[in-house]
Design a protein that fits this description.
The chain is 41% helix and 18% strand. By secondary structure, it is of the alpha+beta class. It has a five-stranded mixed beta sheet. A five-stranded mixed beta sheet has the order 4-10-9-6-7. Strands 11-12 form a two-stranded antiparallel sheet. Strand 11 and strand 12 form a beta hairpin. Helix 5 packs across helix 8 and helix 7 packs across helix 8. The structure holds dinuclear copper ion.
């Protein structure tokens, strides 16, 4: 009976561990210089913790099985156990960890020459992404060149959020009135999921973003495309959509550069169809995703600040036709 209980517990633990191995980004799969450094510190913490656990558990087992001291005199008096095991060993372990973590923290904050500066503003519940030198404003997608140091300036104009891309770097909070910085250096091309790691309200869980690391030439091309004004609509349907966007409430909250839509409350839509996802990760940026998101943003994202826009099916179709051309 006892063996069966033990097997049940073991099976449950195995299932829990298996749940860790899905597609969720992990700090133990580092893809950037800073993440490699943090993973190294994590493994050192784990290794030392495991070593201390094994030694202490071994001593407990020895104490339980050896019997009383009076029956079998010990070579080590009790006072020496306390000095060595309670003071000396913890002092050495904690001093080692202090040196390693303080050194890593200082390195992660060190500015590099010619670092690319990106500004990220935490919104409810999405991310505004700015490239000040290029005059680019986008949302929920951060592109970085591979192998180059990037400084991300993090601010919030509402409440606290936390910017976390587990595969690239540690998390850093976005605090109103307190600009913070995070440095990342991606070590290869790839896409990395990021998320808000500080509870910030009803849609905290749907405040995701993507970091796209790409070779320098691809990054430059992307930045040039993002800096351009919005494309002119290609046909009558998209033109009708454009007219609806700039004349309806859409343009009051969103900017489409090159048109009269200059709102600043919601994400910049100038190149919205070039992004992978809509609504900070709740829908794909394809026709079905746009129809779902623009048609009723409260369905995939209850509590979203985007109001329902009263559009007929035909108007919605025209608006989506236009948005799909904003590449
Ligand atoms: Cu923003 Cu949680």
């Amino acid at each position: 009976m006892r063996r069966r209980s033990a097997l049940t517990v073991l099976a449950a633990l195995t299932a829990l561990l298996a749940a860790c191995s899905d597609d969720a980004p992990s700090v133990l799969s580092p893809n950037g210089d800073e993440a490699h450094r943090l993973a190294g510190v994590s493994w050192l913490l784990f290794g030392l913790g495991a070593l201390v656990y094994v030694v202490v558990a071994g001593l407990v087992v020895a104490a339980l099985t050896r019997g009383r001291r009076a029956e079998r005199p010990s070579r080590w008096p009790a006072g020496r156990w306390i000095v060595v095991g309670g003071i000396a060993v913890p002092a050495v372990v904690l001093a080692l960890l202090a040196v390693v973590t303080v050194d890593a923290t200082a390195d992660l904050r060190r500015a590099a020459d010619d670092e690319l500066v990106i500004e990220v503003v935490g919104k409810r519940w999405w991310w505004e992404v700015r490239y000040p030198d290029a005059g680019v404003v986008t949302a929920n997608e951060v592109h970085v060149p591979v192998g180059e140091p990037v400084r991300i300036d993090l601010v919030s104009d509402n409440i606290s959020h936390s910017f976390w891309v587990p595969e690239l770097a540690g998390k850093v909070d976005l605090v109103p009135g307190q600009p913070n910085q995070l440095r990342v250096t991606a070590d290869g091309p790839g896409e990395h999921l990021g998320m808000c790691a500080e509870y910030c309200g009803i849609q905290h869980a749907n405040m995701r973003f993507l970091v796209v690391a790409e070779p320098r030439a691809d990054f430059d091309r992307w930045l040039d495309e993002q800096a351009a004004d919005a494309a002119e609509p290609s046909g009558a349907r998209a033109t009708r959509g454009r007219d609806l966007v700039v004349s309806s409430s859409c343009g009051g909250c969103h900017t489409v550069r090159g048109t009269t839509a200059t709102g600043r409350l919601g994400p910049d839509l100038t190149h919205v169809a070039s992004r992978a996802r809509l609504g900070a990760g709740v829908a794909d940026a394809d026709r079905a995703g746009f129809l779902e998101w623009v048609g009723d943003p409260h369905d995939p994202k209850p509590g979203v600040l985007m109001p329902d826009v009263p559009l007929t099916d035909d108007q919605l179709d025209a608006v989506v036709a236009y948005l799909l051309e904003l590449r």
